[in-house]
Amino acid sequence: MSPQPESEWLAEIRVLLKPSVNDPQGLSIRNALRTLGFGGVADVRAGKLIQVRLTASDRHAAEEAVEQMGSQLLANPVIETFSFTLDEVPARVV
User: Fold this and answer.
1) What is the 3-state secondary structure (H, E, C) of the chain?
2) 21-45: average pLDDT
3) What ranges do the domains of the chain cover?
């Protein structure tokens, strides 16, 4: 039996400061938005969006890899949280 071919995946990983951590960048953005007339802005949290293309045998393997990336490198577990979405990249038609 031949091994299953690997699929290509696109992960979008969002990293944010934990709610208990002060976010000076978010406060600056909130204040600037209010100055521009967006008075209804109550709070802003700034973070990072990281896109990663990877190959994996299936969705489960891709999710496990992205989970490890987030917990080992992309987010500091002391002050940050992360979440991600994962989509299979359609095969290219030649």
Assistant:
1) CCCCCCEEEEEEEEEEECCCCCCHHHHHHHHHHHHCCCCCCCCCCCEEEEEEEEEECCHHHHHHHHHHHHHHHHCCCCCEEEEEEEEECCCCCC
2) 97
3) 7-88
> Is this prediction's pTM over 0.90?
no
Greatest CA separation for the chain: 65
The CATH number given to 7-88 is 3.30.1280.10
Q: Calculate what percentage of the chain has a pLDDT beyond 90.
A: 89
